[in-house]
Amino acid sequence: METIAIAGLEQAVSRIGLGTWALGGWVRGEVDEADAISTIHAALDLGVNIIDTAPAYGQGRSEELIGKALKLRGGRDQVILATKVGLEWEGGSVRRNSTRARVLFEIEQSLRRLETDYIDIYQVHWPDPLVPMVETASTLEELRRSGKIRAIGVSNFSPAQMDGFRRAAPLHTAQPPYNLFERDAEADILPYCQREGITTLTYGVLCRGLLSGRMKFDTRFGENDVRQQDPKFHPPRYGQYLKAVQQLDQIARSKYHKRVLHLAVRWVLDRPGVGVALWGARRPEQLSSIGEVTGFALDQATLADINKIESVITDPVGPDFMAPATRG
After folding, report:
1. What CATH topology corresponds to 3-211+265-292?
2. How far is CA 230 from the centre of its chain?
3. Considering 57, 122, 192, 241, which one is annotated as catalytic?
């Protein structure tokens, strides 16, 4: 497993992390507890030592499952726990709230659910335009100095927002969406983080399963599945994306004897400014290919071929549909 150093943490961090949004059961249907715990254990067995979660993933469910899994296994000090702060919910409605009071409330809730007394990386989930950046940042810095968290991160922040945050606190990590089909981070976020020494934990590496190679034209998604809201999964775009996936799979097979999933993850890991790629899973078998994304690199000719393939998507869209509302 490839590793990377993250400022504020003593141990090396695996360049593949386990993303646990789906384990919360809120966006793709309920996940069996035994399957969820087995998935977490499988990731650790495969050399993954960073687990990314958030209170909003199933309204605390994902954090609870991680806490149970680590209690059963032991070895908490060998695992990098990254969770988030700054969202509140009521029923199915999620809103941004990064006030000092909300941060101080959430940290205690996350510590309880994760069954730990510290969090390795604490990240502001989304920027909150209604709260001064200095208020949120200084509160996280207070938590870091108290020992409750070890590194500070942000998620879905622009460079300008990160600049504002860093006026009141150090910033160790940033989490943007990034994959073969969602590449906006290349324009400014990845270069900024590379220049400023901020490690990126990129999420959506398989573009909500689209780059897994398992989806077909007749694949259907449940009523509460987040992909129902993603324009990429509706015609005519869906067919265009699937055609691109097929062509990417052909490149992976012919050049590397791999599949599109391995190509997609390797592509992210090889990009300048990328530290960690977060690989989401709901079942242990979905992680079985982790070992196949190491030991090779994409050459310039392959990168050029990949860029040509993306031209079959005539109306690409990003992940903006996932942005939560601000408080009214």
Report:
1. TIM Barrel (3.20.20)
2. 17
3. 57
